[in-house]
Amino acid sequence: MSSEIRPFEIDVPQEELDDLQRRLTEARWPDDLVEDWSRGVPVAYLQELVSYWRDGYDWRAAEAELNEHDQFLTEIDGQTIHFLHVRSSHENALPLLLLHGYPGSIVDFRRLIGPLTDGDRGDAFHLVIPSLPGYGFSTPLGDRGWETKRSARAMAELMRRLGYERYGIHGFDIGAGVAGELGGIDSSHVLAVHVTTDPGALALLGLPLPEAPEGSSEADELERLREYQTEGVGYLRLQSTRPQTLAYSLTDSPVGQLAWIVEKFKEWTNPAAELPEQAVDRDELLTNVSIYWFTRSGASAAQFIYEAAHAEADWGSESTTPTGFAVFNTLPVVRRTLDADQNAAHWSDFREGGHFPAMEEPALLTDDLRTFFRGYRA
């Protein structure tokens, strides 16, 4: 197996851009039976967003911005792994592996790169930001079996190839599951793990929800989470059972791929935002969707979720590596469920943000990462 690490630059062929324009222009639209989001993404909203994607959004500008950072490809366990490697000007900065979730990509962490690498000497990081196997430019999938544990082994090998003897990890969503596995697999090298979550994760993981304490105001929030356990997990059940059937729509229709992702940004970002672009930058959202479209990774990301659902171990198996949590759009039930004995190495609660804090609240997440990892620097 070759351990070569070779430079990479994003360069989507012009014919791919032209094809996207054509497909967006010629899209067929369903009838709009309801005007709100109760049955999914409303037609009128998506038509306006598609119009902007076609006529207002600039992929080449986004591509150039991503290419400002050093990117590489390497082969690990038969799989192409793409990653950004952004070193701080401070030579003794702490190496930090940033792991995205679903439906995310390297774009999730764009706003963290400058603050984390250019911080004060005592808070600076060298950043490694991979596309998980089957996501983004870590495609196509080499074979079956790529789930959290196998991905964790690949990330351990990546950090070894880069020469990092000791490093920290941050992840969210699937990235948090990979981070948890990695903390156990490579505990002799992983200093600590930091993950973010939100109340919706309790519903998505299918965890039993407790009753609201007597006299508390949590009853309505818990009822909404219970409703989401049945109404909000259709995407997960489909990808966990029939990813290949879904793959045709996500690969052939950019409008379908856009709707599939933008619904999650509506449902999972801070509920104070009425529309996804009120929670995250619209161009960043479309850059993320564009990466899924150009790399055809909507299909392989669904396969990843299928593999994770059918793996022997549950996502995020226990690890003795110190683990810190940052909860966004927080509710007290999250800690009562995930850290009932309050044994976590670190716990932060934020009313702001939601499932995508690196995009929604990058300053809060940056500060929390600095605070947590101060205790694990040499």
Description:
This protein has helices at 14-25, 43-55, 59-66, 110-117, 148-161, 174-185, 200-204, 219-231, 234-241, 243-252, 254-268, 282-295, 297-309, 332-338, 357-360, 362-373; strands spanning 5-8, 71-76, 79-86, 94-99, 125-131, 167-172, 190-197, 323-328, 346-350. The mean pLDDT is 94. The protein is globular, with a radius of gyration of 20 Å. It has 378 residues and is α/β, with parallel strands linked by helices. The two termini are 34 Å apart. The chain has a single domain, classed as Rossmann fold (3-Layer(aba) Sandwich), CATH 3.40.50.1820. The longest helix is centred in the C-terminal third of the chain and has 15 residues, at 254-268.
| Most strands sheet | 9 strands, mixed
Per DSSP E runs of 2 or more residues, the count of β-strands stands at: 9
> Structural class, from helix and strand content?
alpha/beta
Shape: globular
Task: Give the helix level as a range of percent.
Answer: 40-55%
> So, CATH architecture?
3-Layer(aba) Sandwich
Strand order of the largest sheet: 1-2-3-5-4-6-7-8-9
Mean pLDDT: 94
Q: What is the H/E string?
A: EHHHEEEHEHEHEHHHHHHHEHEHH
Radius of gyration: 20 Å
Low-confidence stretches: none
Give the N-to-C terminal Cα separation: 34 Å
CATH topology: Rossmann fold
> How many helices does DSSP assign?
16
Q: What is the CATH H-level superfamily?
A: Alpha/Beta hydrolase fold, catalytic domain
Beta-strand content bin: 5-15%
Number of domains: 1
CATH class value: Alpha Beta
